[in-house]
Specification:
2 copies of one chain form a homodimer. By secondary structure, chain A is of the alpha+beta class. The first copy, chain A, has 2 domains: 194 residues, Roll (Pnp Oxidase, Chain A), CATH 2.30.110.10; 28 residues, no CATH class. Chain A has 6 helices and 12 strands. In chain A, the strands form 2 sheets. In chain A, strands 1, 2, 3, 6, 7, 10 and 11 form a 7-stranded antiparallel sheet that branches. Chain A has a 4-stranded antiparallel sheet with strand order 4-5-9-8. In chain A, strand 2 and strand 3 form a beta hairpin. The two termini of chain A are 37 Å apart. Chains A and B meet through strand 2, strand 3, strand 6, strand 7 and helix 3 of A and strand 2, strand 3, strand 6, strand 7 and helix 3 of B.
């Protein structure tokens, strides 16, 4: 992809430098791709009329995409202002996976175990038909791995109604907290309970639509449900 | 709280008006409080040096708080730039609860079932000691209901190290998608499977810290774990 020596590590600029809890910073680019692969959706931040706006949305990351550091794809209706305004502007995409509640002996030491990725970069409108199809398939496969290959191709009308925005994965930071609470010795001596409540996203059984009652749940959906059981 | 007639409903300004998928907009203020109560954490958006920055953080909402529409509290280290810079600036706090993957017969109709709340408002530094203690207790109780009453009070040193920022809950929008996929008749006729994969955050069993092995898991933690089983 790139021969830039800063490609292997994250935080190549001050905008994504981690200043607080530097011990929680992960610096390997593969950690970024891992968090992005696991997070089911992201929060997209834009600046609108001078104020911040944060909206949840689906996405896909392509480490081999054409942008520096790889490509993150967002999509939405051509009528969605956040997408229409995105090309040429700085965007921030943040993905967070919560792994547990850290329940300490003091309110001060309460925390969460999590993995989060913050990507900052300029939006690029994807108008090349081949890249657009690729991006849309990646977004579907991000939700359910292997699903895009089982579906018909997007129609010309659907493609015209859908905006795809790309951003480079170059400027990014990843943070992770693991382990139990860190309490003062005096609080430990007081004999109060402390620990972690593990949290994770789980799936129920697939609910088949009433108008597909005669059709078996496809393999890729069954596999995903099983992996999130 | 307020006698403003717009208090009962959301989206009092154009900044939080929902333009896309208006059918997904919830307009009752109680829906906002419900989403904020259930979301374990939020994503805070700020504008820094002209670009958007989105970070995950814990929070608490107090519908009876002193700000217009109630108060949302954020907290963090006094060394955290996003907190230090927040007072007097516009912030955006977004909470998203994912309820399921909507798996349609076309990539275009894939979606998610979710509830999300977007709050935009100006940050206010909380320096009144009583409100600060109240806010910090609400943040702990937001994570584990009832827990703050079981912990010692924050020390003077802890309070000095912690910044609390409030923002009004006045300007907000809430969106919700429920139900199955909405497919074109031709796609339904093609006999492809469609449905929903329900998703939810679940808790495992509490993991007691090694230095608290002799202490029983407290009631409020056991209750929370049970409610997320």
């Amino acid at each position: 992809m790139e021969d830039d020596s800063s490609m292997a590590t994250l935080s190549p600029t001050s905008r994504t430098e981690i200043r607080r809890h530097g011990d929680r910073a992960l610096t390997d680019r593969s950690e970024l791709y891992a968090v992005l692969a696991e997070a089911p959706f992201c929060h997209l931040g834009v600046v609108r009329d001078g104020h911040p706006l944060v909206i949840p949305t689906v996405f896909a990351a392509d480490p081999d995409g054409p942008d520096r550091g790889g490509t993150l794809y967002l999509h939405g209706s051509v009528a969605a202002r956040s997408l229409v305004e995105a090309p040429g502007r700085d965007l921030c995409v943040t993905c967070t996976i919560v792994d547990g509640l850290v329940l300490a002996r003091s309110g001060f030491s309460h925390s969460m175990n999590y993995r989060s990725a913050v990507v900052i970069g300029r939006g690029r409108n994807v108008d090349d038909p081949k890249e657009k199809l690729h991006a849309l398939a990646r977004v579907v496969d991000h939700i359910v791995p292997g699903r895009s290959a089982t579906l018909r191709s997007p129609s010309r009308k659907e493609l015209a109604a859908t905006a795809v925005v790309a951003m480079p994965l170059f400027e990014a930071s990843v943070k992770r907290r693991t382990g139990g609470p860190s309490d003062d010795a005096a609080d430990v001596a007081a004999g109060v309970w402390a620990g972690v409540l593990p949290l994770r996203m789980t799936a129920g059984y697939p609910v088949t639509s009433h108008d597909a009652a005669a059709v078996a749940v496809p393999d890729e959906v069954a596999r995903l449900a099983q992996s999130l059981r």
